[in-house]
């Protein structure tokens, strides 16, 4: 069974500072991993995904995440925070088999950007 | 850019009533999903649908829930007799392959 744990339900960073949102996964097989973003009153938008190719994955809006098998982590980073990055971020995992295509989400981390 | 749409954006209903939440997936997508998010909790998988049948469902998806793709474009979630604990944001998602699911904006269901 797969699961993800997001460390910190709220994270605050100053505008221009590094963003680091932490995610650790648990999976009995090499997983597929995702980061989704949810802006206020909107749906879930895929930021990036890892599907067993390159371990450093680049997504939209300068976000990237690195799959580290030894640490079972998939942390999300962005070099310089922008006010528009304020949103809720969800780490998610799914098994790489067609027979199990559901996505398991973490509890989410709300990112606050300080001026 | 094509997107998943959902209607209504907010539905208020009384306990025991039936509700139908509607979704229009992206037109060439083959896989369809419903998820829900109870306020303050994580997004949870409800059901996946492929080739006109349910491919997987969670333990949440009991007999009061049903899904349908009535006309080749809409994808609906019916809750037969709503309970207070069904109050949540319900997200529809669709995908061409199972690896990248596109989510709609959600329907907020409030059961009173």
Describe this protein's structure.
The complex is a heterodimer of chains A (115) and B (112). Chain A has strands at 3-7, 10-14, 19-26, 32-38, 44-50, 56-58, 64-68, 73-78, 87-94, 104-105, 109-114. In chain A, strand 7 (64-68) and strand 8 (73-78) form a beta hairpin. Chain A is 0% helix and 54% strand. The model of chain A has no long low-confidence stretch (mean pLDDT 91). In chain A, strands 2, 4, 5, 9, 10 and 11 form a 6-stranded mixed β-sheet that branches. In chain A, strands 1-3-8-7-6 form a 5-stranded antiparallel β-sheet, with no helix packed on it. Chain A contains no helices and 11 strands. Chain B has 112 residues and is mainly beta. In chain B, strands 2, 4, 5, 6, 9, 10 and 11 form a 7-stranded mixed β-sheet that branches. Chain B has a 4-stranded antiparallel β-sheet with strand order 1-3-8-7, with no helix packed on it. Chain B is 0% helix and 51% strand. Chain B is globular, with a radius of gyration of 13 Å. In chain B, a hairpin with a 5-residue loop joins strand 4 and strand 5. Chain A binds chain B through residues 32, 36, 41-46, 49, 51, 90, 92, 94, 98-108, and chain B through 4, 6, 31, 33, 35, 41-45, 48, 55-56, 58, 91, 93, 98-106.
